[in-house]
# Entry
Amino acid sequence: MLAPGADVPKSAGPPCAFVALPANPGSSGSSSARRGHAESSGGMLQGMTQAAVGAAVCALASHGPRRHRGHRTTMAVGLSTTSKIVGTWTDGSISDATVTMSTAEISGGITIFRAVHSKDGQRYGEEYNLNEGSTDNVYLMKPDQHPWILLGTFDADCQGPFFKDFGDHSVSQLGHVVVQYFDGTQAAFLEQLVERRPSAEPLEVHCSMPIVIALRKSLSEKALASLKLNPIKNKSTLEIEPGRVMRFVLAPTLKLPEAVVAFDPLSGTLFSGKFFSAHCSHDNATDAPGLAGWEEYAADWYHLFDCYFFTKTAQTAVRKIFMLAEEIAGPDVQQLAPMHGPVAREQCWKLMAKYDAWTEQKLRKDTRRNFEVLVMYASAYGHTKSLAHAISKGLSSAGVRVVDLNLEHETAANIKKALESADGICIGSPTLGGEMPSQVKEALGLLLANCAERQLPCGVFGSYGWSGEAVDELQFRLKDSGFPVVFDPIRAKFRPTAEVLKLCEEAGVRMSQKLASNLRQKRKSRIRNVVDVQSKTSSSSALEAFGKMRTSQCVMSRKNGDDHVFGTVSWVNQASFDPPGLTISVKKEVSEQDQAMDDDLEKLLEKFRVTGIQTAEETSAALSEFFASEQVEELLKRLQIEDGEVTFEEVSAAVGPGGAIRNELAKVRLTPTQEQEGALTSYDEFVLSLVPTDADPFQLCVEPVQHKKAKPKNGCFVLQESHAYLECKVRNNLDAGDHKLLYCQVVAGQVMDDKEKTEMTSVSAVLKSMEALETTGKLPAMAASYSKATSSKLTGQFAGATRPLASRDRSSQMRTALAARGGSRGGEEVQKLSDVEMWSGLTPGKEYRLQTMSVQSVAQDTSTIRSLDWDRDRFDIEFALERGTTYNSYIIKGEKTALVDTSHEKFKDLYFEALQKEVDLAKLDYLIVSHTEPDHSGLIGKLLELAKEAGNEHLLVLGSKMCISYLENLVFTPFESKVVTNNFKLDLGGHELEFVIAPNLHWPDTMFTFDHSTGVLFTCDAFGMHYCSENMADVEGTKELMPHYALYYDCLMKPNARSVLSALKKISDFEVKSVATGHGPMLTEFTDEFVEQYRSWSDKATEKLGPSVALFWVSNFAQSERLSQLFAHGLTSSGVAVEMHDLQAVDAFEITECLGRNEVVAIMSPPQGSQASANIASIVENCKPKKHNFIILDSFGGGEQESIALLRSRFLSAEITENMLEMEVKQDMSAKTMQGFEEAGILFGRKLTQKDKTAALKKQNKDLVKALGRLSSTLYVATAKKQGVRHAMVASWVTPASTEPLGLSLTIAKDRAMEPLLRIGDSFTLNILEEGKPSTLQLMKHFLQKFAPGVDRLEGVDCFEGSNGAAVLRGACAFLECKIISRMDASDHWVGYAEVVGGNVAVKEAVAAVHHRKIGTYY
# Structure
């Protein structure tokens, strides 16, 4: 358990007990997560040239192992931002570290070390989807009188057990290590070997050149001095002992460019690396003979093959391996020794032959069906569009029809139509302001809403500048919704390289292969699942348990014109606090058109029911009664008739919901007008009259009487007999089998009889009453379908796609240049306009006018080149522009010359034509990069190239630390650079420039430059606006410019208002005369007014911000990054902003600024004696006793990290209050440990936000919340198990939701600790508590107590494990086993729809316990 500090006063906070880890001095992050991330993408080096490999590993060495996907990757050097964390410990990327080391001897005297990862230790990535565990294999050859050879390496979680078994004596006998694969963890293993190896002789490492480059970048100087890196070439050899020579062959693939295969001719062993591997955790080190032996591993072998070796390059690599085998003069290949899974001896040649056959099969085009894939994307600078086109190219090459949708120019109707016909989807997004643009959000919403049942195969991609959260969030949302993701996410930092584009093409091929191979199996599986669910849910035990649920009885009234329509409602419950809301399940109504269609489909199905199987000709004839010939042909393809026959089961699935025949017939029968019938606005508003105890809701509907005093504003009817009513508006809806789940905001309400309670009736009793009334024809019916009423309203118009631009006369000729204004700013301004150049950009069929304006004097020795983008109609994709924009570059000429920023890439010819008239590139001394966003840095690479061609070898690039780091990824040629810090000064001779680091305005690498000689402040994006005119300065005045200035601030700067105020403080001592912006006019005439607006707006914006936490983590150290991310995720789930800083990179000034913005400081324990440790002193010094609180978090660094107790004492000695006891890990890292860290963040976030939330609830209308509190409910305990973690909670916001299939809704707060276990696809058990039993009170008391983070709620509770792994409480009277199918956002809660898959009743005569409240502001 996590141990709370014993010496801390009780007032310091609640104890934090939970499972933790042993000290591991060699640990450097979770190996399993790193392995999962790297392997899921085919290794760290996938898709790279040898030169690119070195660059990739430089980043790895600087920033630590690759982050596992699903989590944010923005914690680069110096980053200071409010974090948006995507994904949690449940995303499959976290292993429970259950690793067992075993050794065995295989043929040839070779020792195999097997690190066996259990099935429970899930890893992330497509290759691990079978959830069969895995083994990591390392092989040892021990020739007599010669140095030993080790083939392979282990990750950090396996190194301890390995070295314990291996022993220092064995290490000393090692002479060679063969590395066949690289994901960044091999360097740590080699460092360990060097440390333990006393020999003076260098240890020889044999690997491909890409790995050599990578190791040189990542190994320490000490290790490099003790190693000899030998690059392997084709036909390289290694003498094992006299007469025994190992042969190597390079076998690169797109995913494994570093792959090497080795062959030992004496034993006939082929050490194959990833080739011939399998992810499974069987006990045996080798395979078994015969057909049974093949079948035991065949699925595992094929699955890993399917993930890696499906391309032409893979086929070439496989055949190179075969050629090696053919060239061998001597023993044949006798056994395959792979990196994962069993050694293949008995099935050796069969597996090799299968690899050849499988690759051949993969590369054949499947002509059984013309697949259609929708590739939709938005693109800010054209980079994401380039990725999309490369994916489309791969799809087209495989014979797939591609529908290309640029989301900037599409309506919701067009997207929905494309989704209906798509067989697969690829969706791409840039990352803007830390998230995806609104068009992509809208498209994703349509995808999730319209394709949930079909579960189309998907893939995600995107370009980014500095963070890349959008791709992570797309991946997370799709996986969370149960969509199969075909290829690992593709990311391109800035402009995609040729290697990345090639990877995109292969992803397209991958999608086509998956569509062809999986479609039939998925369809058959769907049929089996439907039958399985129906058989389970129709069982008497589940139905009986379902019937025990008790619900509030209500009558719904709404207006239909001048009439009032009534209906009984019982499946209703509260769903949110702020705003107050409820869920209600309403039965879908069948229209006349739908009924007629159902009748015809039943006739069609009857023909197949009689014969069971029909030929293609018979099927065609049957379909021809309803469809035209071309539609029949298309349906036959979609049915995928094999051997000329179609079965009853196949047709049954095709006529069912979402089936091909039903969908096609709907297109024929229902016009768009008919599909939207019933979409009446009256369905948006209604009133619920709550039925008092012992009243009959059905009878009240027969002869309704209007309440004399209750008068809801929406004009609906309130029953005289009701004791309370709720006035509601529909806000969202969710499909729930034969019902529709509505989320409604309660806008008003009143209690008329304070003493009365709401009638609670069991589901079984309600269903019996309805059945009886239906038989007699007395059941009142609601007028029309809620399904149609809400869906049309909610999908609405596609945001941003049809927003009209302000009218603007585009036909007039370009205005001439302004006359010179005189030397008020340092001399006469001479403005020169270039000719207009037309550019065809992202909008299909549209051309944009581009032009440059050179202004020779904007201040003394200062000129500008303004790139005029007259017709740009959007920026950052989603914000409409009325007056185009500009990209401004500035030149300062003293004794030396400096250029401040460049321009957008599309201005290349115009810009350099203007620049070379102003500056001799051979003599340009400095390039000042304010930040690296492509619209300002798009021409830096070309500038460096032209300067070099002109003989300029001294050009120095100046930028912030992050800027230079990003620039190295943007410009693929070497350049001289200098990192500048706050207040660094540069003397140009006559012009002294001072630099100000201004992160997050609006990128984290932003800096300002101030010229003390002229008073010009160069700010790039800050203080800018998207406004294009021939006026260099703000002469139009504030009335004309302020709307554009304000829109720009709202879109880009307002989210970073705290950073704006910080930057204003930094420049407060400067005598600013004018502001040279990156967009729009310079601020020269109304400088003070514009700058002051930023201050005023930011003050107002920060007043509304809630609590925030400064979280300091340590890059490339132990588990610091992952644990900090989990803690931050918990905080953000509770509505707390998180500002994260790397202790290794943050400077003293940034610490001061950060602590000025945040009152709570969380510290991940840093390594001893490091820069990170030194920065702790600065943090303590800047903390104020009456303002700041602190938390200390364990980094799981073992003996290498600073003592938790000493860190606490430093803060306590400075009289800083400890807000929560330290989180210290003392046992093995596990999913439970991870969950505990996230839960700790949730609980702490609740503590920080509780005051504000309570205040908000107190402001709500008292009559409304009293009325809402009259909704009563059954008491349950929900239990679940995921990734080995058990959890449980008391639940009352649960209601029945459907009868076919049997389903219910479960509402859970977004900041509830159990929420990560209750997402789409998760299973849980609903334990129904019994009325009047002491055991119910005991269970309530137990589960309502406060638990420390990570504590097992079920410990000590009498229960047993059900079929879904969740606990069944012996004290419950009944239980239901459920699986979440879909979820709906309900403000501060999630509403999940779950199908009941099992259940039972323990006490048949028991009555479910109910919970009555007085007010709706608590559970």
Q: What stands out?
A: Confidence is low (pLDDT under 50) at residues 1-97, 522-538, 671-682, 779-828. The radius of gyration is 34 Å. DSSP finds 38 helices and 61 strands in the chain.
